[in-house]
Specification:
This protein is of the alpha/beta class. The protein has 9 helices and 14 strands. A 7-stranded mixed sheet has the order 2-10-9-8-5-3-4, sandwiched between helices. A hairpin with a 4-residue loop joins β6 and β7. The protein is globular and about 65 Å long. Bound molecules: pyridoxal-5'-phosphate.
């Protein structure tokens, strides 16, 4: 039986990537020992990291005045690293809170410095994205932080908030490279690898050069973007294996036809699921239709008991990890880049069957 893994992260990886990693694990071609055994200063590892970086630059069209860094600590470390580096003395930043991770980012940033709440969707249980008019942005802020896709609630920004000359910082952990991206709109982008990019352990950070001098000299070196940029992501031992998997995933994305193609595919996949939600009274989506996520489709059934039964019976059919996050309940189908369209179609037929027998 084919297993379709709807996990929210770590999440489905392309089968080709796993197969290549398995084939080459014991002995890297042309080297003869495992990548796991090699110095991060050795030529093959340095070249592997450089080519992962170059492939990311090519895939996303990253301008030359941006650094591409592979850090550790997950997206969660960025919640505090961003303010430690980007807040200026006596300065403040604006945060937009649209979900759980956005809220965690706000809480950690407040421990570091002066943060304003510039918008929140908490009143409607994060079922939407604020409009530009609803935002209360301060032109004097050091930066604006937002969360591109709300993994737990299943909402997504269709376009970035407009912040004028104030640098935009995006946590794109759960929708990075799922469609074309205009990096030049951002001052900084960060994403944990384990949703759309690969295996847990590496955090991708893309930062505009002019922001690097903001890193205070007094910062411990491991927390400084400037130090990591100068060290070309190898200030200390980087998460070599995780970067390697990320590199394979980025090559795979390019082979699929790049971000335009991924954008179309991800739209198609999400539409199949949302069309099913919209055509049924039995299932109800959490997010308002205009702000639905293409990555995490969240919905409810008439009772919590039916939701548990749905997830349990789906697992028997090979549709696993459909239970929603504990903070919102219900069902969540995460369908990131590597999740196949066939799996979405299988879920929709299961939904129809479940509604017929339990509706
Ligand atoms: C998963 C997730 C995080 C947390 O990532 P870690 O790598 O586990 O720290 C942060 N932000 C968003 C949007 C996420 O989806």
């Amino acid at each position: 039986m084919t297993i379709y893994n709807f996990a929210a992260g770590p999440a489905t990886l392309p089968a080709e990537v796993l197969q290549e990693a398995q084939r080459d694990l014991v002995s890297l071609p042309g080297v003869g020992i495992s990548l796991l055994e090699m110095s991060h200063r050795s030529k093959p590892v340095v070249e592997m990291i450089e080519s992962a970086e170059q492939d990311i630059r090519d895939l996303a069209g990253i301008p030359d005045n941006y650094q591409v860094l592979f850090l550790q600590g997950g997206a969660s470390l960025q919640f505090s690293m961003v303010p430690m580096n980007l807040l200026t003395p006596n300065g403040h930043a604006d945060h937009i809170v649209t979900g759980n991770f956005a809220n965690l980012a706000l809480k950690d940033a407040k421990k570091v410095g002066n943060i304003r709440l510039a918008g929140s969707t908490e009143d409607s249980n994060h079922d939407c994205i604020p409009s530009q008019e609803q935002l209360d942005l301060d032109l004097a802020a050091d930066y604006v932080h937002f969360t591109g896709n709300n993994t737990i609630y299943g909402t997504e920004w269709a376009t970035e908030p407009a912040t004028g000359d104030v640098p935009l910082v995006g946590d794109l952990s759960s929708n990075i490279f799922s469609k074309p991206i205009d990096v030049s709109k951002y001052g900084l982008i960060y994403a944990g690898a384990q949703k759309n990019l690969g295996a847990a352990g590496a955090t991708l950070v893309i930062i505009r050069d002019d922001l690097l001098p903001r890193s205070p000299e007094s910062l411990p070196s491991m927390l400084s973007y400037n130090v990591h940029a100068k060290g070309k992501s190898a200030h200390n031992t980087p998460p070599v294996f995780s970067i390697y998997i990320l590199g394979l995933v980025v090559k795979w994305l390019a082979n699929q036809g790049g971000l335009e193609c991924m954008g179309r595919l991800n739209n198609d996949k999400a539409k199949i699921l949302y069309d099913q939600l919209d055509s049924s009274e039995f299932f109800s989506g959490h997010a308002v239709p205009e702000h639905r996520s293409r990555m995490n489709v969240t919905f409810r059934l008439p009772t919590p008991e039916l939701e548990t039964q749905f997830a349990t019976e789906a697992a028997f059919e090979g549709l696993v990890e459909l239970k929603g996050h504990r903070s919102v309940g219900g069902i969540r189908a995460s369908v990131y880049n590597a999740f196949p369209k066939e799996g979405v179609e299988a879920l929709v037929s299961f939904m129809k069957q479940f509604e017929r027998t339990h509706g």
